[in-house]
């Protein structure tokens, strides 16, 4: 079991700065990097990564059919009406700033560690987590500053790199990190408990990097052969994340103000047991709920709480949506405890990635076995109240081993979509944009009479801060339409 870092020690050394800031989080001015040890820099950056995954993606939960605005509250118009633009962005529109701040922390850690051979493991983790964050930036915005992102003294107005070129370089960076660990990991300082994800297990960090490379390859499946796919064989012996080495962030969450698990704190209860705003305003969505009902999926009552013995889900934008008294909030499978670990890369997502890669002939293995393992891991993760064997035996669920590739991918993505509910709304939406799966029983588009489109947003706009501070380079990206301007890998 991973050892917790001393909460009190880190609290005083790193500090808790600002509203909505992550537990152990850091706010770094890229023009004036803070001076700290690699141990504290790593712990703070990792905890901030966990916070960002929760805080930055509520819109994708609603657009993707997982969540719905409560009938008891006036909806967020930008969410529900799809009325988003560079000047009227989704709220909170924090992904850009949050990710670049977190990246600055990781970049500073990488740069300072590179000059100290004994800190090679810190350098490698920083490289891997930079790839993790940059993938999110591309998947949100497509083209973003990359090669000039961390040179504020010489590049006040950083140029944008294409999403495709960034993905290609991330593969190289992940390979470099894997090689760095292999070369120096045994002799370099072990991060130990300052690594609040893997506790200094550098073999697991190599596996994490390799799994992230697999995600980069799968995400580009519509493009045919891609650099990430072509490179999979070079690190095949590393393996991929499974149930025993899931990437869970645990800095020592506790039921105290500012120190709870970030998802629980934002969408569950405060330290006194009172429901917070996210819990009150977000309800279950009929799209995901009815998909699970159609498959007799017991995870429905894990993701959503029952009300009077049933899941009462709402439809995004429907003026007749029920009040909180009779609609289903988040369930016990995602709101377990204020001390629950924050999952950074789940075992079930990794298993579904592997299943699809095998189905496509990219890696060896049994797609059927990996598919079943992914569903089983998801059941266990949310404590689903139903036998997984009976679920897998249903013809509507069983893996189509003799079917076409399209049928196999549809089955994999359908189960992946269900498993990502709540904690990984962004990844669920990404896969829906990539494949068009699952085939949903209801249209997830907003039913709000004021909705500007019945087409789901294909991307979010660049933030207003870029219009104000980097307008020449922003202008080179052309006119961005949130419904038709797609991420380079999208279907």
Supply database-style keywords.
Four Helix Bundle (Hemerythrin (Met), subunit A), single chain, 491 residues, mainly alpha, two-stranded antiparallel sheet, disordered N terminus, 45% helix
Label the structural class.
Answer: mainly alpha
Amino-to-carboxy terminus distance: 41 Å
Instruction: Give a count of the beta strands, DSSP E runs of length 2 or more.
Output: 6
Please report the first level of CATH classification, the CATH class of the domain at 347-438.
Mainly Alpha
Going by CATH, what is the homologous superfamily of the domain at 347-438?
SusD-like, tetratrico peptide repeats domain
CATH topology value of the domain at 347-438 = Four Helix Bundle (Hemerythrin (Met), subunit A)
Strand content: under 5%
Number of separate helices = 20
Shape: globular
The unreliable regions are 1-21, 27-34
Mean pLDDT, nearest integer? 91
Question: Considering DSSP H and I runs of 4 or more, what fraction of the residues is helical?
Answer: 40-55%
Radius of gyration (Å):
22 Å
> How is the largest sheet built, in terms of strand order?
1-5
**What is the annotated CATH architecture of the domain at 347-438?**
Up-down Bundle
Q: Main β-sheet, in a few words?
A: 2 strands, antiparallel
Describe the 3D structure.
- The protein is mainly α and 491 residues long.
- The radius of gyration is 22 Å and the shape is globular.
- It has a domain at 347-438: Up-down Bundle (Four Helix Bundle (Hemerythrin (Met), subunit A)).
- It has helices spanning 7-14, 38-55, 58-63, 77-81, 95-114, 120-141, 163-184, 202-219, 227-231, 262-267, 277-281, 286-294, 300-303, 347-359, 367-381, 388-393, 405-419, 425-435, 464-469, 471-475, and strands spanning 67-69, 144-145, 160-161, 247-249, 282-284, 342-345.
- 45% of the residues lie in helices and 3% in strands.
- The strands form 3 sheets. It has a two-stranded antiparallel ribbon with strand order 1-5.
- The longest helix is centred in the first third of the chain and has 22 residues, at 120-141.
- It has 20 helices and 6 strands.
- The model is unreliable at 1-21 and 27-34 (pLDDT under 50).
